[in-house]
Amino acid sequence: MSRVRYLGLTALLSLSLLGCQKAKPPEPVSPPAAQVSAARLTKAAEEPGQWMTYGGTYAEQRFSTLAKITRDNVKALGLSWFADYDTNLQQTGTPLFIDGVLYVSTAWSKVYAYDAKSGKQLWQYNPKVPGEWAAKVCCGLVNRGIAAYNGKIFVGTLDARLVAIDAKTGKEAWSTVTLDDANRDAPIQRYSITMAPRVVKGKVMIGASGGEFGVRGWIAAYDAETGKQVWRFYTVPGDPSKPQENAALEKAAKTWPKTGDWWSVGGGGTVWDAAVYDPKTDLLYFGTGNGTPWNDQHRDPSGGDNLYLASIVALKPDTGEYVWHYQETPADTWDYDAVSPMMTADITVDGKERHVIMQPSKNGFFYMLDAATGELLRAAPFTDVNWAKGVDLKTGRPNVVKEARYHDKPWNLQPGVQGGHGWHANAFSPETGLIYIATQNAYFPMVADPKYKHTDVGYNLGLDFTAPMTYYQKNPKEKSGFVGYLQAWDPVSGKQVWKGEENQGPTGGALATAGGLVFQGGGSASELRAYDAKTGEKVWSVSTQTAVLAPPITYELAGTQYVAVSVGGPVPGGYFAPNYSRLLVFALNGKAVLPPTKEYTPPPIDPPAADASPEVVQLGSERYGSYCAACHGQNGQTRGATFPDLTRTPLLHTQEGFNQVVLQGGRTDKGMVGFDSVLKVEDAAAIRAYLIARATELKNAPPPPGTAPKQAHEEK
Ligand code: CA
Question: What is the mean pLDDT of the chain?
Fold first, then answer.
């Protein structure tokens, strides 16, 4: 119903009720919010002024036909308005723009709505995730996006709820706990949600993370009106001695061990990012994550493929019924989740029009599959790859380098476990025929942990997570590091066409437009950039004061094209430094100015004397790797801006204070739970000794000034 009709009805009612009395002016009645229907979603490309779903349209190409901002006028692009978030940490959310309102999710699964004309905040929704849940979140307290349908905004929360919010008021309409029905409080329920829901024909599709800890991966559909579960598809089998839930899982069970405890501790295969609905095939595609533990020698010594780990799977969205799958990394042992963003497209391949689904994967290969059948059409490396020498297009299997499985000795993996590409959104321009990939060159030494035992607290990986430091000290000539950059990739020829500049750590997601531009955040370089989509020439950039990891969107309001992006991420100075998390909105001739940045000096590295024995430090290193590195990074230094740098904590000066936090949970409200169920007093002493040793090393050889904090292990 239009605004005019609403006003008309109200006026009419007022007149008839009041009769001849002097009529008061009617209260303005605004139209309902987020009136996104199934038809509107299917035809989203016909409304380029809106951005109604995570990837722009169901195809998730993140391509806009808006063309008012072009490579010729982009130099005049300036800040139109901005809004500060009340949460810092890392921002990874794709905003939605629907009928004049911008909706965006932030760290801690909060959601904001803004009047896009004035920039005024309309509401904020806070799901109040308990701080202690942070211990069940592998890779940052982030949220990548939301979905809209029929007056509601949907968000998945870190504590694994799916929530519907009234788009008009910001009030909770319903909230559903998505945890597995069985063993609700068991450690195996260490799920969290960071992905954006997708709505398909009145059902909200969502999956959950947790594969680093040990959960059973799934994707499920919920009724958008009631929050009731409609179906759930598990990605890995359950108890092998019992019948599986469906024929697809019976088939999968044959690729897993018949015995062992792998199933009771999860198996992995979590669905934590990519999901694409395709109206042409009426299929829902999603990617699945790594196995638990990572090291397949501990998960399945028989070397089975372990379906459906590290796969793209196609289901019928009405019923959750399996249709096809393609496993990118059989018997994954490298944390090669196949969950990186995907998109559908119509492309001429080998002289034939093909309707395809494409994914630049964490394992370093770019995959193109027939969307209806899953037939593999292309698989080519788009970054440094040393675990496989190509992929056989006939069998679909990678030619794995045997030594890369690190059974006998360490392997300097390329791409490392950070991936050749993470969750950072790609864009595809049908005008250039190029896909713009947020690429990573990353290296990570895989060192098996022969003493691995499953733990109910911390990671379950089966490898030595503190290895990088010592490995590169012993092997200084090996390639190391982690850089991100945007590259334009020809999906048919399998060749790079151009490459943008590099930044430390992951780079930001991309947006392509019919203005001949690709917008992209420069990760830790703290700028938003525009490239010429054809040539890669950098034609515009602006300082954002903080890292830009989230992808920009574009929309039109009152005849003006805008570009909006959520910023906030790793900044020099770490956890306690000002983070400047905001929504930034740009337009041609925008004149708004950000307030100046604040001076900040991180606390000094000032450890007490390092007097522990090498054996104690070694024990501390092992315990730290098992229980602390997940959040605090591999070597005690801050993991991005998300968690404190332990080499600088004053707690190093007192074992009693250290124990209060580490064992007794003195900072549970901030997400640091007590570990006294798994760590003894002597373990805590050893961890402190290890951190003192690390801090002493760093104090004696500090990194060069201005070095961005190492993002050794981004969301994975
Ligand atoms: Ca993973």
Answer: 90
Distance 627 CA to ligand 1 centre (A): 17
**Residues 6+ positions from 459 with CB-CB distance below 8 Å:** 138, 212, 213, 465, 626, 629, 630
Q: What is the DSSP letter of 506?
A: -
Distance 511 CA to ligand 1 centre (A): 25
Asked if residues 569 and 560 have their Cβ atoms less than 8 Å apart, the reply is: no
Q: Is 350 considered catalytic here?
A: no
Q: Is the pLDDT of residue 335 over 60?
A: yes
Pairing state between β 444-446 and 411-413: antiparallel
Per residue in 406-450, pLDDT tens? 998 999 999 999 999 999 999 999 999 999 999 999 999 999 998
Judge contact between 83 and 45, C-beta under 8 A.
no
Determine the Cα–Cα distance for residues 258 and 100; give it in Å rounded to an integer.
Answer: 56
Q: Is the pLDDT of residue 133 over 70?
A: yes
Residues 693 and 647 in one domain: yes
Assess if residue 182 is contained within a domain: yes
Rounded to whole angstroms, how far apart are CA atoms 580 and 594? Answer: 10
* Residues 400, 398: Cα–Cα separation, whole Å: 6
pLDDT band at 23 (very low <50, low <70, confident <90, very high): low
Nearest to 278 by CA among 195, 371, 196: 371
- Domain containing residue 353: CATH number: 2.140.10.10
21 CA distance to ligand 1 middle (Å): 69
Q: How far is the CA of 310 from the centre of ligand 1 (A)?
A: 9
Give residue 218's domain range: 38-443+481-588
Cis amide prior to 125 (ω within 30 degrees): no
Q: Is the domain of 157 the same as that of 278?
A: yes
- My answer on whether 358 and 264 are in the same domain is yes
Q: Are residues 657 and 574 in the same domain?
A: no
Task: Please report, for the domain that includes residue 673, its CATH number.
Answer: 1.10.760.10
Q: Specify the DSSP class assigned to residue 681.
A: H
Distance 31 CA to ligand 1 centre (A): 43
Task: Say whether both 507 and 653 belong to one domain.
Answer: no
Question: Which segment of 91-100, 491-500, 646-655 scores lowest on mean pLDDT?
Answer: 646-655
Looking at the fold, whether 660 and 529 belong to one and the same domain comes out as no
Residue 410 lies in a domain: yes
Q: Per residue in 274-321, pLDDT tens? A: 999 999 999 999 999 999 999 999 999 999 999 999 999 999 999 999
Query: What is the total count of domains within the chain?
Result: 2
Out of 173-182, 195-204, 468-477, give the one with best mean pLDDT: 195-204
Distances (CA, A) of 370 to 174, 352, 354, 374: 37, 12, 7, 5
Determine phi and psi for 53, rounding to 5 degrees.
Answer: -145, 155
> Which of 296, 335, 449, 683 is flagged as catalytic?
335
State whether 408 and 300 are in the same domain. Answer: yes
DSSP string, 527-549: EEEEEETTT--EEEEEE-SS-B-
Summarised one tens digit per residue, pLDDT across range 450-490 is 889 888 878 899 998 778 778 998 999 999 999 999 999 99
β-sheet bridge partners, residue 96: 103
Q: Please determine, for residue 1, whether its predicted confidence score (pLDDT) is greater than 50.
A: no
526 inside domain: yes
Residues 324 and 369 in one domain: yes
